[in-house]
Amino acid sequence: MAIGTVQVSDRLDSLWGVQVVDYVYQGRRMDLQDLLVAVSEERAVTIENGISPLATRMRMTNKQLEDLGKLLSKFSRLQAKYKQSEDGTESIDLSPDELKLLNFVGYSATDTTLTLKRSDTEAIVQLIKTKMDALNNNSQTRMTRMNGLVEKRDGAFTSASQMMAAVSDTRKNLISALP
Fold it and tell me: Backbone phi, then psi, for 171, in 5-degree steps?
């Protein structure tokens, strides 16, 4: 953000002996008040641009958590099929998406039909829970960051709005004071 200054002389200089300085910002000449408004608006837009990708990542994480919750439910139901003292096996059919999720949590599988021992099922349930906990922690961190950005953005828009009102009032007073 480069800001240049240009000395100009206008009616205020000739009437009151005030020397006016215009600022050049993004190729436009403007006075200090307009410059402050433009910078505040740009700050708000920049902050908004940081919020959007963060919100997208949060939606993706929430979708992953939802899918993992369904997978956890499926494996919990399988876990309930085992008898307490039995070391037998149970089979489970997974969709290709569920298989990808299973690999995502750290259990290596290539076939959509799995035959698992009780201990394997318990390990998978634990892997899913661990991954869900990690995603929840990341999600909470992102939510805190996003709340901070939203507050900064709102503050920047408020500042810009207040500056615009002040500029308008100042100009109105200056115009009414001219002979």
Answer: -65, -40
Structure tokens at 138: 């990341």
Assign 21 to helix, strand or coil: strand
For the stretch 114-163, pLDDT in tens is 999 988 999 999 999 999 999 999 999 999 999 998 898 888 888 878 87
Judge contact between 94 and 75, C-beta under 8 A: no
The three-point CA angle 58-60-66 to 5° equals 100
How many Å is the maximal CA-CA distance in the chain?
A: 100
First to last CA, the chain: 38
pTM value surpassing 0.85: no
146, 51 contact by CB (below 8 A): yes
Pinpoint the alpha helices (H) of the chain.
Answer: 11-16, 32-81, 96-104, 118-177
Secondary structure element (H or E) that encloses residue 24, with its range: strand 20-25
Three-class SS of residue 89? strand
